[in-house]
Amino acid sequence: MRSFPLFLKLQGRPVLLAGSGAAAAAKLRLLAAAGARVRVVAAAPGTELLQASAAVTIACEVRPITAADFDGVDLVIGAEGAEEADRALSVAARAAGKLVNIVDRPDLSDFTMPAIVDRDEIVVAISTDGASPVLAHRVR
Length: 140
Known about the structure:
This protein is α/β, with parallel strands linked by helices. It is built from four helices and seven strands. It has helices at about 20-35, 45-55, 85-95, 135-140, and strands at about 15-20, 35-40, 60, 75-80, 100, 115-120, 120-125.
């Protein structure tokens, strides 16, 4: 076992989401469903992220990430999809002592997000530790 599996209670906990596109929108929906207090920062938010933000009534701050954004958050999720931005976010989050997940980049992440099967009281998480996200989704 390369990673420690756990289910994290995010209800009311602050999470920073940095990203612009469809992956950021998907993570926003999951975090909001878990009850996290999500702060979304995007230098150039796409339509899907703006629609997801409006649907869960969370404002999207349109600007680059700053060091101050890491203050008071428990987790950092990066979903930019650009090598330089993802790497910079990972380095900055770790320097601030935060656990970070960069979507589809296990090498830049402290944890991975599993494929999820959610049936009310039963939740199943399927993980390949980031080695094969496609396989995890197929198993789901």
